[in-house]
Amino acid sequence: MKEKPIRKSSAKPTGTDWDRFRSLTDAQIRAALDTDPEVIPTDAGFWKGAKVVLPRPKQTVTIRLDADLLEWLRKQKGYQTRINAVLRTYMEAQQG
Questions:
Q1: Is the pLDDT reported for residue 6 higher than 70?
Q2: Is residue 87 within a helix (H) or strand (E), and if so which, with residue range?
Q3: How many whole angstroms from its chain centre is CA 28?
Q4: 3-state secondary structure of 10
Q5: Are 76 and 84 in contact (CB under 8 A)?
Q6: pTM as predicted
Q7: How many C-alpha atoms does 34 have within 13 Å on its Cβ side?
Q8: Which of 48, 46, 80, 45 is nearest to 65 (CA)?
Q9: Which tens digits make up the pLDDT trace of 24-79?
Q10: Are residues 28 and 12 in contact, defined by beta-carbon separation less than 8 angstroms?
């Protein structure tokens, strides 16, 4: 199976040394996980009650927004998801 090329992100640095990480073998990664006190292993019992929850399908809409607002929103990562979250929060506040 052909691996996808790794894209360099223009996002803020995370503090992770990705070059070092990419140089590790699977065995080295597994050994690091096995000795990390913050890693909590899971077993079949952990997943027994798990359910797959599919997101609700979204609908495409046309909406008229102020130009400066739309310009600002589009500068945000995942701006459409953010708009949806803001509107959902407002809807839930009005229902409660």
A1: no
A2: helix 79-95
A3: 25
A4: coil
A5: no
A6: 0.45
A7: 6
A8: 80
A9: 999 999 999 999 999 988 899 999 999 998 988 999 999 999 999 999 999 989 99
A10: no
Decide if 85 contacts 56 (C-beta within 8 A). no
Dist. CA 58–CA 84, nearest whole Å: 10
Cβ atoms of 82 and 73 closer than 8 Å: yes
Q: What is the 3-state secondary structure (H, E, C) of 28-45?
A: HHHHHHHHCCCCCCCCHH
User: Nearest Cα to 84, choosing from 50, 60, 48, 49?
Assistant: 60
The Cα–Cα gap between 43 and 53 comes to: 20
Q: Which two tokens stand for residue 74?
A: 């589009």
Residues 6+ apart with CB under 8 A from 83: 73
Q: DSSP character for 24? A: S
